[in-house]
């Protein structure tokens, strides 16, 4: 099934805030998913993106994940990486808003890339450390320069294969409040990262998975994560999936959500009720 068909399947099943009865989820929709405020920091971050998208410098790339759909050659320009492998502006802004709303102190990212999404996740909470893993040393060097440029002094980078660096960073962090998994588009590693992180999580930890509909394999991984015994709440936004371990929630709940403006006929009195 193509990504377009997968999207239309998702869209046909998606709810808006008008059919949500969970106060926690409703608040998340209002404060994060439908928030369109422009924060002061967005300007500097998008200027950095534009600089990277124009940078012709070539890098020798070690790709330990499933690669890019667009360009999977071993040597790539910074411009090409910025245009195809870095989260787009609206996704980065979503991550910024999520951090701003939840205020998680112990944050971990798997998949630094050029560091733009790292900065979007770090800046809303500059007084707390941010940990990020990258498989490719040359890409990590560019990210480090970007962190320095924006004076992101509390970002801690770990470079190498995640199977080696993830246990080390978890040992250093001791506890996880927030995890963004964006480093690999294959089922087995994605599930492995989740399982490895779980012992360091607690009932208020949030896991964010990128590209959950990237392939049939990633969709299967997402279903397995949702079914995990510790997961009590999942939110499928198509481009990303959020997983919560909230112990106060007695019954598992799984939502597929779109902003209300994308389903205007599902507003207010006209919306069917879902529990």
UniProtKB/TrEMBL annotation:
<protein>
    <submittedName>
        <fullName>Class I SAM-dependent methyltransferase</fullName>
    </submittedName>
</protein>
<dbReference type="GO" id="GO:0032259">
    <property type="term" value="P:methylation"/>
</dbReference>
<keyword id="KW-0808">Transferase</keyword>
<dbReference type="InterPro" id="IPR029063">
    <property type="entry name" value="SAM-dependent_MTases_sf"/>
</dbReference>
<dbReference type="GO" id="GO:0008168">
    <property type="term" value="F:methyltransferase activity"/>
</dbReference>
<keyword id="KW-0489">Methyltransferase</keyword>
<dbReference type="Pfam" id="PF13578">
    <property type="entry name" value="Methyltransf_24"/>
</dbReference>
């Amino acid at each position: 099934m193509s990504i377009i068909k997968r999207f239309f399947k998702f869209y046909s099943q998606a709810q808006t805030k008008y059919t949500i009865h969970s106060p926690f989820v409703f608040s998340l929709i209002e404060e994060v998913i439908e928030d369109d405020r422009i924060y002061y920091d967005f300007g500097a971050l998008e200027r950095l993106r534009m600089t990277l998208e124009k940078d012709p410098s070539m890098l020798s790339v070690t790709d330990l994940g499933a690669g890019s759909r667009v360009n999977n050659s071993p040597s790539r320009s910074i411009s090409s990486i910025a245009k195809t492998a870095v989260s787009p502006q609206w996704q980065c802004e979503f991550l910024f808003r999520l951090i701003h709303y939840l205020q998680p102190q112990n944050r971990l990212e798997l998949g630094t890339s050029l560091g733009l999404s790292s900065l979007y996740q770090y800046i809303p909470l500059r007084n707390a450390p941010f940990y990020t893993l990258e498989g490719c040393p040359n890409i990590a060097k560019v990210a480090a320069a970007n962190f320095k440029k924006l004076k992101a002094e509390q970002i801690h980078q770990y470079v190498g294969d995640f199977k080696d660096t993830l246990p080390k960073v978890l040992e250093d962090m001791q506890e996880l409040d927030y995890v963004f998994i964006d480093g690999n588009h294959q089922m087995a590693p994605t599930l492995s990262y989740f399982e490895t992180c779980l012992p360091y999580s607690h009932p208020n930890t949030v896991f964010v998975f990128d590209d959950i509909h990237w392939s049939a394999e990633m969709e299967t991984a997402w279903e397995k994560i949702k079914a995990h015994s510790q997961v009590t709440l999942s939110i499928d936004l198509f481009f990303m999936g959020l997983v919560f371990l909230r112990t106060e929630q007695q019954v598992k709940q799984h939502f597929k959500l779109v902003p209300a403006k994308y389903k205007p006929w599902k507003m207010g009195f006209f919306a069917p009720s879902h529990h």
